[in-house]
Write a structure and sequence with these properties.
About 45% of the residues lie in helices and about 15% in strands. By secondary structure, it is α/β, with parallel strands linked by helices. The chain folds into two domains: about 190 residues, 3-Layer(aba) Sandwich (Rossmann fold), CATH 3.40.50; about 240 residues, NAD(P)-binding Rossmann-like Domain (Rossmann fold, 3-Layer(aba) Sandwich). The longest helix is centred in the middle third of the chain and has 32 residues. The structure holds uridine-5'-diphosphate-xylopyranose.
Length: about 425
């Protein structure tokens, strides 16, 4: 099929490359010249495992092109809206400027029977408003809301083999031309048995925000348990293992630590609360305020623990932060708890060095005042304390016996509870985890 993908960020660039991989002819469109230039030459503008190889393969196969010219969408019959919906400045609500601009720019290029597919995460009610704009422009064109559930770090495989498809359509019915067209786009995954649910527009929008709210709640639940474990002298990792064996609960997303960050969970729960307020249903979501508060408290707690670890004062202490990305296998530092903790430590007088395998360029743009060192050995040299804040495999695999020689004081704070505490202690380290004795 002929497809256009509007917005080539973390979502759109991956979506465009994956749609080409499925055999479609795809044009990726973005307003950012630099991004388009990079993508056209087979370079990913951000780190995502497997993306660059896929881009090169599909560019070479001639199925994938990138442009800043929206008129290229005129060729397409299915148009995916993949632009960002960041948090509004100074407010909890989502900023829909990019979604509105993308659709506004696409409308004049729509042809009869085209399908516009919304993938961005939007406040419930947005899709119905956009659907009306589409049918006013082209009465035989339709809008489908098809939320994206990909995780950064696994974006390519999540896009090619998602665990489900959700289609929101105005009719709420499967018997719909737009549904048939989107089925054709996703035929490979559907043929292999991926479930597909057809809903009305508001339900599809809510599926995404509800899913992210549930995940955020699960993480904050276990972090709240970590607070209690700390007070009671219990171990939250064993607690999570034990409750996770109940398959009604499940062990996934029960890793206590410095909390969630990234471009999705924090802003999505806030936008959801703001939208519920507009709908008069704010009471239903007041618990998300607590979820957010527990999460933000983790960051303060780590700063306090780091101070304890440094004998009660951070002033002039050399602290090395291992990890800047909001999670491993990503260079994304949007609302990264690791980076926000690093900045706090610096403000409180510590001499902070931050290292990360992939995220240093983004981190230094976000917090230019911090000191960055790409080489792990150089970063830990003469440190008074190490803080493992993003659980990259190379940090999990650090050898405490070798490392003890390079640091000034062997003290480690394991912000993700991934190190073998007994082994680090045996190697002479003062080890602190979160929610562990
Ligand atoms: C999330 C959703 O998982 C995805 O479905 C949605 O489409 C976008 O938002 P992502 O932001 O890529 O994906 O990251 P995710 O893997 O969900 O992790 C979010 C944050 O939670 C990270 O900062 C991670 O470190 C943290 N986390 C995750 C925990 O602190 N504990 C856990 O047990 C799991």
């Amino acid at each position: 099929m002929l497809i256009s993908v509007i917005g080539c960020g973390y979502l759109g660039a991956v979506h465009a490359a994956c749609m080409a991989k499925l055999g479609h002819e795809v044009v990726g469109i973005d307003v950012d010249d630099r991004k388009i230039l990079q993508l056209s030459s087979g370079r990913a503008p951000f780190f995502e495992p497997g993306l660059e190889d896929l881009l090169r393969e599909q560019l070479q196969a001639g199925r994938l092109t990138f442009t800043t010219d929206m008129s290229a969408a005129a060729e397409g019959e299915v148009h995916f809206i993949c632009v960002g919906t960041p948090q509004k400045k100074g407010e909890n609500a989502a900023d829909l400027t990019y979604v509105d601009a993308a659709l506004g720019a696409l409308l004049p290029h729509l042809s009869a029977d085209d399908v516009v597919v919304g993938k961005s995460t939007v406040p419930v009610g947005t899709a119905a408003r956009l659907a009306a704009l589409v049918s006013a422009e082209q009465p035989t064109s339709h809008l489908i809301w098809n939320p994206e559930f990909l995780r950064e770090g696994f974006a390519v495989s999540d896009t090619l083999s998602p665990d489900r498809f959700v289609y929101g359509v105005s009719s709420g019915s499967e018997d719909d031309d737009a549904v048939r067209k989107l089925d054709e786009v996703y035929a490979t995954a559907l043929d292999s048995g991926t479930p597909r649910l057809v809903t009305d527009l508001p339900t599809a929008e809510l599926v995404k925000t509800a899913a992210n709210s549930f995940l955020a709640t699960k993480i904050s639940f276990i972090n709240a348990m970590a607070e209690v474990c700390e007070a009671a002298g219990a171990d939250v990792t064993q607690l999570a293992d034990a409750i996770g064996m109940d398959d009604r609960i499940g062990r996934k997303f029960l890793n206590a630590g410095i909390g969630f960050g990234g471009g999705c969970l924090p802003k999505d729960i806030r936008a959801f609360m703001a939208r519920a307020g507009e709908l008069g249903a704010d009471q239903a979501l007041t618990f998300l305020r607590e979820v957010d508060a527990i999460n933000m408290r983790r960051r303060t707690r780590v700063v306090e623990l780091a101070r304890d670890l440094c004998d009660g004062s951070l002033l002039g202490k050399r602290v090395t932060v291992l990890g800047a990305a909001f999670k491993p296998e990503s260079d994304d530092v949007r609302d990264s708890p690791a980076l926000s903790i690093a900045a706090q430590l610096q403000l409180q007088g510590a001499v902070v060095t931050v290292t990360d395998p992939k995220a240093l360029a983004n981190a230094s743009r976000r917090f230019p005042e911090l000191h960055y060192e790409a080489d792990t050995s150089a970063a830990v040299e003469k440190a008074d304390a190490l803080l493992l804040l993003t659980e990259w495999q190379e940090y999990r695999a650090l050898d405490p016996y070798a490392l003890v020689e390079s640091v000034s004081s062997p003290r480690v704070l394991d912000g993700r509870n991934v190190l073998d505490a007994a082994k680090w202690r045996a190697a002479g380290w003062t080890y602190r985890g979160l929610g562990r004795p």
